[in-house]
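[#protein-structures] MJ: dropping EKC/KEOPS complex subunit BUD32 here for a structure pass
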Amino acid sequence: MNPKFRFVSDGASYFGSTEDPTTETHCNVWDWDQLRMIKVKGTVKLFPPYEDIESQTLARFADYLSPKVFAVTVDDEGLISEVSTDPEEEETLFIGYIPFSAAESLHDCRTIQYSKLQELDRLGPGVDLSLYYDESGVPQKIAFKFNPIGKPRRLQMAWEELHLLKSLPSHPNLVPFDRVVLEDVESRVIGFTTKYIPGGTLENAKLPFRFEWVQQLTQLVDFLNLDLGITHQDIAPRNLLIDPETQKILLFDFDWATRGKRTVQHVRDDVGGVVLTVYEIITGDTHLVNNSHWIQDMDTVQNMLEWTCNRELDSDVSKFRSFLNEWVTTRRSSGDMERYLNTPNPPTWPDLPTSPDFSVPFECGTTKDGETRWVTGYRMRKTAMELGQYVFRWDRPPQSRLRKSKDGV
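AK: finished. structure tokens for EKC/KEOPS complex subunit BUD32:
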């Protein structure tokens, strides 16, 4: 797992003025390696608003914390002064995963129990390289994708991606869907697997770039947009694999994808995504694509007089640019959006059902009259445990410890 993606700040609470450097500050940081939330306490002096110093601070010592530690207090130099194992300090959201029996839309999928997956590597946030033995005893290397975060938006995205992938027709430029993953106690849907492609992504600047891959990518985007009514919304070098067997380009990571008008973000337009991606691959310039999607501009790239090539290509840069310009002109012609909204073969699936777990009421403060306030809906993991609800826990040791144990250290 790339270290720069490991920690994500989940917000901070300030117990006083943010102008006062002594104000107590509590920051929640999600660790994609250990799959747990850790609270980092300090002051505004160390953790000023909007600077995400808490992630950098936790990164120094996260691998050395006991899994029983929920909160860490640091001094103004970022050094640990106190740790807490009090469960009340935990800020992890509970996830009410849908029982497989209640997900009728998935009953045509093959399934695999979570305990049958052997972790081989951690490829990125929410994606592991794993292995299982199929019904014939044949080992299968797969990419296991999962969502361990209980925020409603992330649960919706996971549901949409799973259904979209299992609904896609077989295509030479798409990574094949494999199985639905179920946890072992109550057979709840916790993720899915896809075929593992070992060729690496186009982020690898040492990989020569072929003109035919641009042709394949544009044809694939046309197929997704205009035949299926699907927008990927996250086309980027990191999401483009090269199959070492076929030498074809493969698009994956559909967690931002949408169908029709559902959650379409015009700033994530696939046509612009292709142009910006090819520009980044050829030039190595990440200045534009590292900006927010709101300010990325395909026209800026297309209007450049010259693309400085910093990668081995099998054709002149002008050939790539000419092809892209012609394709963009065609896609921007009148009727393109109508074709997208009226595609002949759009996949369909039901909305994410409400988990029965969230109908269980829990205490949430008091009313104006001082009586206990009972509510339903999303809750903290500690609250669900107090209610006796089944909680699937993702927590695991840091990858650095696993490597040491494998090396006999």
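MJ: nice. DSSP finds nine helices and 17 strands in the chain.
AK: one more thing. The two ends are 21 Å apart (CA to CA).
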